[in-house]
Each structure stands twice: as C-alpha cells, then as structure tokens.
Amino acid sequence: MKITRAYRTELDPNRAQLAKLCQHAAVARWSYNWGLAKKKTALDEGLSPPSSYSLQLELNRLKRSSHAWLYESSKSVPQTSLDDLDVAFKNFLRGRRGGQRVGFPQFKSRKRTPARFRLTGVIRVFHRHLQLPRLGKVRLKEAGYVPTRDTHIMSATVSERAGRWYVSVTVEEDVAVPENNGSSVGLDVGINRLATLSDGTVVLNPRPLERSRRKLTSTQRALARKQPGSRNAARLRLRLARIHARVANLRRDQLHKLTTQLTRTKSLIVIEDLAPSLMIRNRHLARAISDAGFAELRRQLEYKAIWYGSRILVAPRFFPSTKMCSNCGALNEVPLSVRVVTCACGMTLDRDLNAALNLIAVAASSADALNACGENVRPFSEWRISEKQEPGLLRAALENGASSTVVTGRRNSIS
Questions:
Q1: Is 390 a catalytic residue?
Q2: Is residue 366's pLDDT more than 70?
Q3: How far is CA 409 from CA 40, 243, 399, in A?
Q4: What is the pTM of this model?
Q5: 3-state secondary structure (DSSP) of residue 153
Q6: Residues 312, 330: Cα–Cα separation, whole Å
Q7: Is 352 a catalytic residue?
C-alpha cells in the first residue's frame, strides 16, 4: 500500500547555509504577502481574485525586470507560497459556506511569523546529508533516519524554531500492512490520566506545560523588564522560545509513544468523539485540556491505524460513557469531582475505567450493525449496548488486574 509520510529531523547548517536559509524564508514570506495584496486589491475592485498560476506568471515577469533578487533563491519557494495562499483562500470560502469559523488570510509578519519555506524539485537524501535546491548538501544531526531507498521524495519543508532549523521530508513509499491479531480495547482520555484502557492500563499525563510554568513565568517577567529591541531582550526571547519548544517536544513524544504502542498491539481501539475546541471554553480547565493534546492523540491514532492494520471506532459525542454503569447499564449523576462511580447494583469502580469498559462494550454491540463485507448498514446513533455483555467485560478486566498497571510516560514503551 502506498502512503504519504513525512520524516522530520534537525539540520546542522554552516554559517553560509544559515544565511541562505534565512533568505529563502524571507522570499517565501514576501511572496505570500505580495500575492495576498494582489488578491485583496482584486476583491476591493469587485473582481475575482487571481489564481496561483496567474500570480506565478506575473511574478516571473517581475523577476526578469525589477525583482532580479528572486533569482538568488530556489524558484519553488515563491511557487509553493502562492499555492499555500490559494489553499488558505479556499479554506476561508469553504468555511463561510459550511458555517465554520475560518478567518480571512492575514499578512505574515517578519517579527512574529516563524521562518518557513517549502522546496520541490531535485531533492536527494544521503546517510548524513540532505541535498536541497540552491542550498547544496546540508548536514543532518541525525544520521540514517530519512529513508534513502524505495521512496519517492515529493517535497521538503524547512522551518525554524527556537534558533534551530528542521526539515520535514515528505515521501511516498510502499508499506506492507501487517496482520494485526491484537485484542480490542476501549480508550478514555483525561487530564490527570492521559489514557485509561479497558484492560486496566493507566497512562499518566506528564503535563509538560504545568511542570514548566514557573520557569516560563520568571522568563516572561524578566523579558517584560528589558528594553524592547535590545540584545538582552533578544536573548530572553530566545530562551522563552526554547522553553516552549521543549514543552511541545515532551508532549509530542508522549503522544507518539502511546499511539504507536496502541495501534501496533490492538486490533480495535474505541474512542470518544470529543470536541476539544468546545471543551477549552471552560476557563478553569482550558490550560490543562490544551496541555493534554486530545485532538493530536486522535489524529495520530487515525493515521497510524492504517500503517499497523488496526481499526478505530468512534463513539457518538453524547454517549454517556462516564454516567453509565458498566455492570447494569443504569445512568448515574457523576460530577467531575467524583472519581469513583458507585451504582445501586453494588458496583464501585474508578470513573475512567468505567468509561473505558462502556466504550469497549460499544464495539461488542456494533457487530450487528455490519454486513458480511464489514460495511456499516445503520448509523452509529441507533446502536444499543447489550446488557448481557457488560458484566462479562467488567469481570474479565478485573480478573486481568484492572486498575493495577500504571504507565508514567517516562519509559519508551507501555509496561
């Protein structure tokens, strides 16, 4: 099976290459702003905005006359920037028609916009180097990570963050999907516990932003006392960016380890259809929910399931996984402060494990909604949970040591 995959690694450029990288990022930003100005002028005059192709033709004419400095960078940099501008306009128009909140494209600032550009054309990957158009061979800090054989390189996106330059090489490669014979599992996500599985496994949330708040606060206060534009202000701004980059890297590392382990070992993963963009409207939990990365967790599960032969089943958004008793099916009021669910049937269980057991019961009850070819023949909202299956699922989880396995997120794999 052919898939499109991106390999991201850090570059190790010399001084001359570093200046070239900054120059290419400036050309990409200027091309985007120039095309946006052309489109806004056309809209103000009541005309249809020019397409990316027509803007590229006009830019080529300017390059031969008054903008000869564009020849110093790769020709694919302004082309890809104008293509990105077209995508931004299409998303804006589609969002207006569909009722989604997609803002109008904005101009990119030299001070606030991260340096970034995309290259196409002849891109070659070596064991320790990467050859890019107009940049030559750039040394990689990680050797042998980007594949060099049996792949078709489509593009390379170079970006800068916290003083470090990274490249994301997009390739098209053949992947042999393995046969996944693992068990099925229900996955309930949370703030203190990032993931609670129906088999009793608990993955604690490292909460990298919360752990770095004191350092962030002191650095931001020190930056506020510096003279804007001074060297000390620039030094503290770089230190602040490095702290934020470390927080993002810790969160990404935890999510990748969890999703890779789940999709490799489980044949079916049942998750909830959460809406993080609505959940963060609660000002008391907005920071903690954003720090957990619920949307990124689901995104990684969905594309990794294709690679490793597992399936993802999404429960309805208003499915009462926490309120429902996994033993008798009764609905109970469970406030957020209550961490243990107690039902009239005599069941007492952790609320997250109870929700995970209800999710795996959804997978068992959805079998009658599929035909012989495995296609869904009736909507998910009409599925019913079998009361006969839930007690067996609960007993099986407890017999296997439910709520006894804890994963701290500091190891390389789930134990």
A1: no
A2: no
A3: 48, 20, 25
A4: 0.82
A5: strand
A6: 26
A7: yes
